[in-house]
Fold:
Amino acid sequence: MKSHSGNIGNEGADHLAHKAAVNQISDVSLPPATAPFYDLFWLSVPNKVGSHAEEIRVLTNLQDKLKHHMHAHHYLCEANTDTLLYKLWQKLHDTPQRAAQPDSRTQQDTAKLLAQAQFSNKFWSMPTVTFKELEQVLKHRTDMIHTDKHTKRFSHTTVPATCPLCGGLDSAPHVLLRCNNHTLKRMHINRHHHPILGGGWHHLQQSHAEAFFKAGS
Amino acid sequence: MQDAISKLQIIGAGIFTPTTDAGYSDTVTINPGGSGPTLTINRAELAAVLVAVQKGHTEIATDSASLFQIRKQLLNPMAVLHHLHRELPRTL
Structure:
């Protein structure tokens, strides 16, 4: 039937509906409606308000909001953040201004910057650095390079984690600097001299080099 | 429609059976039983159709679009699995 057509039957039904709604008295009452969204779920996260109360905050979408929440809480997975390596890594991200601020309790300067972000990452764009070398640097930075320390940690061996060349405690810093083996010592010295005497240093601009020396001093 | 006093949304439904040759005439007022998000005109219309069928009427004249939902319930029931008033067309 066409709506609002003035049909007497339709008008009569409309009048009855109006009467039932206004007077709240009806001949037939249907049972109350079931909860409409009982089987629908939506992601929410606890939103801490104040020191005690905690309420639920609904994620407004399942794209960037969910990604942002998951990244903030789970990007480190189950990694142990109470380690020296993690703290040193965090210090690398400190800005010069933040590092220069004195400690509120001791009124002394906080720890100095461990790395200059500009110079520490310059090697990524150097044409003389090979992909293999980049890979090794990244492994050293994240302590992912496989040494006897890891072999011992993952229970792949029962013997002490010692360097096979010099007998000292094996680790990534040991491989990089501390091994007393003659061949490795020569490699350390060559690696130190290469950026200055070789081609690497020339890739840094003069202004950058001046800033580097100022920062060093 | 809105309640004049409380300004809350209220709904109602009714069945009007006109006088026939047999002299039969009837009026039924219906409380659709909705609340909150289920307090809709659509529910009132579905309730009216449901009560009319339950009372044995086979020829129903209505201007309601709920007929499409009843048809959908019959032909494609999975499509109205999460419908707001799913229990009404399911009973029908």
